[in-house]
């Protein structure tokens, strides 16, 4: 197993740092997420330009810049709220569209019924007119 240095955001929005043992960076990420930490940086200890990263991690562990962590946490919370509001707004629009669709169907059905009744009334009126004009002709023919 290898050691990975990480920087992550905890559920309170604070930056936290430390190390985790894993076979791969992906496994390290999974371990951190299972601890409700959201990694922003994971680097294998002792690799590449990590000397500076390790020093930063150690400095932060001793009480590094907490304001940056608070701002990052606020940003994460703000983004979460924006997504929540957007989701709720989107759901409201979907519900309104469904209601509007139902109302449209109801109005369409009512118009079709009215149209059918109007056609029936017109046919009946035409039949009555024909009877009135044909009756005198029949009487004259008798």
Describe this structure as you would to a colleague:
A hairpin with a 5-residue loop joins strand 1 (2-9) and strand 2 (15-22). It is rod-shaped, with a radius of gyration of 38 Å. It has 142 residues and is α+β, with helices and mostly antiparallel strands. The chain starts with a strand and ends with a helix. It has a domain at 2-64. The chain is 69% helix and 16% strand.
- The helix count comes to 3
Straight-line N-to-C gap:
116 Å
Percent in strands: 15-25%
Unreliable spans: none
What is the chain-wise order of helices and strands?
Answer: EEHEHH
Give the spatial strand order of the biggest sheet.
2-1-3
Q: What is the 3D shape? A: rod-shaped
Q: How many E strands?
A: 3
Biggest β-sheet strands, sense, barrel: 3 strands, antiparallel
The average pLDDT value, as a whole number, equals 80
Helix content: 55-70%
Class inferred from helices and paired strands = alpha+beta
Radius of gyration: 38 Å
